[in-house]
Amino acid sequence: MVLVLIIGDLHIPHRTHDLPSKFKKLLVPGKIQQILCTGNVCDKETFEYLRSVASDVVVVRGDYDETSSFPLSASITYPPIKIGVIHGHQCIPTGDLDALSSIARQMDVDVLVSGGTHTFQAIEYDGHFFVNPGSATGAWTGAWNGDPTPSFALMDIQGAVVVTYVYQLIEGEVRVEKVEWRKEPPKEPAASGLPQSTVMPQSIPSPGAGGGW
């Protein structure tokens, strides 16, 4: 089991001053193996905070990140799952599933993590799984009126199964939802006269709630 934090579009300090305190209580060092960040971290202090939660931090460059040290995209493999990460401003229109599916095919990934919309999404489409963690701070976006709901995601990976837990701060309380996706094995012609075996992945436990640049 691998526990990966999916987070992004923080916009600290330009649009907000910090992560919600209730989120920080959940992000306990030592619980998470890796962080995948969709960008718009914006300041060094926030990047260092992410590194305090997990030493393995992969950040892609958002359209408001001033540093050039972040790549525009990244790919990570947890066999047999291959994950791609982009900010999302490369996708036109932002968040469009057909455009994201084209990027997923170009990157040759099973799961594509992207941001830009400041709205959480976890959906299977065109044979791929797309995850957008939203904005962890609920930073405003000019795309629509109103304040986005602060959110991040934890991705629990075990074999070919990916369980995504979304954490949203709604009316001052953290609410959690679960979305499960399974990578289907490649279809192979059955050998004549030979029995076919099916191996089911192990059940995945819920993650425990703990409390360069």
From TrEMBL:
Gene3D superfamilies assigned to the protein according to its UniProt record, in alphabetical order: 3.60.21.10
GO terms, biological process: protein transport; retrograde transport, endosome to Golgi
Residue span(s) of domain Calcineurin-like phosphoesterase: 4-158
Matches recorded under InterPro entries: Calcineurin-like_PHP_lpxH (IPR024654), Metallo-depent_PP-like (IPR029052), Phosphodiesterase_MJ0936/Vps29 (IPR000979), Vps29 (IPR028661)
Biased composition (Polar residues): 194-205
Stretches the record annotates as Disordered: 182-213
Key words of the record: Protein transport, Transport
Keyword Metal-binding: no
TM regions (residue ranges): none
UniProt keyword Protein transport present: yes
Signal peptide: none
GO cellular component, one term: cytoplasmic vesicle
Protein family: Belongs to the VPS29 family.
Protein name: Vacuolar protein sorting-associated protein 29
Species, as recorded: Piloderma croceum (strain F 1598)
